[in-house]
Amino acid sequence: MAENARLRVIRTMLRLAWQADRTAAVLAFVLAGLLAITQSSYGLWLKFIVDGIHTGNPSRLGVGAVGGVISIAATLAIAYGGQRAQSRLRDHTRYLMNAQILNLVSAAPTLELHESPQHLNELSAFQREGYQLSQVLPRMVELCAVAVQIVTTAVLMVLVDPLLLALPLFAAPSLLVSFKTSRIFRDSGRRAAEPARLAEHLVELTATPGGAKEVRLFRLQAEMLRRFQQAHHQIRRFNGQAQLQAAGWSLAGRLVFIAGYVASIAFVVRQVTIGEATIGEAALIAVLAGQVLGLVSGSSEVLQLTIRSLVAADRFVRLQDLFGHATQRGHRPVPQRLEHGISLRNVSYQYDGAARPALANIDVDLPAGLTIAIVGENGAGKSTLVKLLAGLYSPTNGTITIDGVDLASVDLTRWQDRVSAAFQDHARFELLVRETVALGDLENADTDLKVLGALERAAATDVLSALPRGLDTQLGSGRPAGVDLSGGQWQKLAIARAMMRPGPALLLLDEPSAALDPETEHRLFEAWTQVAHDLRERVGSITVLVSHRFSTVRMANSIIVLQHGTIAEHGSHEDLLHKNGLYAELFNLQASAYR
Ligand SMILES: Nc1ncnc2c1ncn2[C@@H]1O[C@H](COP(=O)(O)OP(=O)(O)OP(=O)(O)O)[C@@H](O)[C@H]1O
Ligand SMILES: [Mg+2]
Hints:
Layout: H1 3-20, H2 22-40, H3 42-55, H4 58-107, H5 112-115, H6 117-128, H7 130-134, H8 136-160, H9 167-207, H10 209-217, H11 221-273, H12 279-326, E1 341-349, E2 359-367, E3 371-375, H13 382-389, E4 397-402, E5 405-406, H14 412-417, E6 419-422, H15 433-438, H16 448-457, H17 461-465, H18 487-498, E7 506-510, H19 518-539, E8 542-546, H20 550-553, E9 558-563, E10 566-571, H21 573-579, H22 582-594
Parallel strand pairs: 3-8, 3-9, 6-7, 7-8
Antiparallel strand pairs: 1-2, 1-4, 4-5, 9-10
Bound molecules: adenosine-5'-triphosphate and magnesium ion (MG).
C-alpha cells in the first residue's frame, strides 16, 4: 500500500469511528494514553520509596507509597474503562462498515459489479477479513498507547542519564527478529491455506443436504474422515515447523537484549557507587529497562498487526469507491405510460472476461401492450436480454430506448420501479410466505388480499393449501419451524412476487416453466394474458416471456428466436411456422415428442 493510500485509509477509519460512536472513540484513545502513562510511572514511585528508605526521608517514602497505590488503582480502573470503550467502538464501527457496504452494494442499479470475478473476490475477501477489519481501530489505539509509553520511558531514562538511551539499541535485534518471525508465520499460514480450505470443504460437504446424500449413499464417511485427518496433519506440520524456527530466532534476539540489560544495570550501579545516581534511580532503571524489551517487541507486533488490518481497511475503502461510482447514473424521468414501447438498436452485451459477446447487434421493437416470447437453445442469450431490459446490465454497445428515451440517460432505479420480474435463478427469501410474496411491492403490501391476489395471478394458490399455516408459514428448513418447498413451489412464489406490482410497464418472466409442470405454466400464462389485457389499456405494459414450451410460446403476440446471441427469426407463431425456419423446426420437434 502506498503512503498516500495508507493515510487515506487511516483518515477513513477515524472518520468512521467518529460517526459510529464518538464518545467511545475519544474515550478509547484517551484512556489508552493514560494507561500507558500510569504503567510507566511504577518505576518512578519505586524510586521514591527506595530513596526514601535509603536516606531516611519519610515524606519521600510517603510520596512513593501514595503514588504507587494511586497508580495501581488508576491502572485497574482505566484498563477496565478502556476495554469497554474499545469493544464498544469495535462493534459499532464494524456494524457501520457492514451497513455502508450493504447499502452501497445493493444501491448499485446494475449487476455488472456483482458478476465481475475481480469485484466478487474483493467482496468475499472483505467478508472473510471481517475480523481484521474490526481490529483496525483497536490497533490504532494500541499503537498510540505504545507511542505514549515509549516517550514517557525515554523521558524518565534521560532524567537519570542520557547514556541509558543506548539500551533500546540492544533491543533492535529483537525488533528485527519479530519481523522475521512474522514472515515465517505468514509463509506457513500461506502453505497451510490449501489444506485448510480442503478441510473446510470436506466439513461443508458432509454438512450440506446435497453432499450428505451422496456421502451416505456411497458410504464415504471413512474416506472423508481420512482426507480430513490428512489435511489437518499437514496443517499441524506446517505450523510446528514455523513455531520451531520462530522460537530459535527470538531466543537469539533476546540474548542480545539481555546483554544490554546487564550492561545498563552495571552502568547505573557504577553511577551509584561514584555518587552520580541514587539507589532509587538504580531501581527505576531496573524497572524501565525491563519494560523496554516488552515495549520494543510489543510495538513491532502492534505495528505489523496494524499494517495487516490496514490492508483490510484499504479493501473497504476501495469497495466504497467501486460501488459508490456505480451508483452515479442518469437523471431523466421514466415515461408514466408506455405509448410506443421499447426499442433495441444494435445492442450488444459482453460479460466481463467472456471471450465473445452473449448478445450481438440486436435490433428489435417491443411494442407497447404486447406479449413477446423469447425462445432459443441454452446459452442463446435469453436471460441476458431479459436483464438488459430490466436495466440490470448496461449494453456494451447500442441503445435501449423507452418511448424514445435512452435507458442510459434515465434514473435506472426509477425504471426498475416500473419493471416486475420473475427470474430463472430467483431468490429464495426464507421469510413468512406472506412476506416472501409481499417483497414484490412493499409499498402496497398492506393487506393479505393483495398478497392473495398476486398468488392468484401467479396460479400459485395451491402452494398455500399445501402449507401448514398458510400465509403465516415460515419458509426455509434451516429456520425454526420452517418448511422447505419444492423447486416448483419456490418458483411459484417468485412469480407471485412479480405479480405484486400493480401496474408494471414491463413484466419479465424468465422461464417460469423451468420448475413448473406444463399445465401450471399454461394456466399461469392464460391468467396473465387476462391481466395483461387490463394493463395494456391502463399503462401499455409489455410482457416478455422466456420459455422452452411452445404450447405457451405460441400464445404470445410475437416471438423472438435467439441463436448464438443474435436474432435468428422474429414474428408471430403463424408467420414463423409459415416461414418454415428454425422456429418451425423446433416447434415440430416438440410437437412430435408429445404426439
Ligand atoms: N454472469 C455471466 N458471466 C459470464 N458469462 C455469462 C454469464 N451469464 C451468462 N453468460 C454467458 O452468456 C451466454 C448467454 O447466457 P444466457 O444466460 O443469457 O443464456 P440463456 O439463453 O438464458 O440460456 P438458458 O436457456 O440456459 O437459460 C452464455 O454463453 C453464457 O455462458
Ligand atoms: Mg436463461
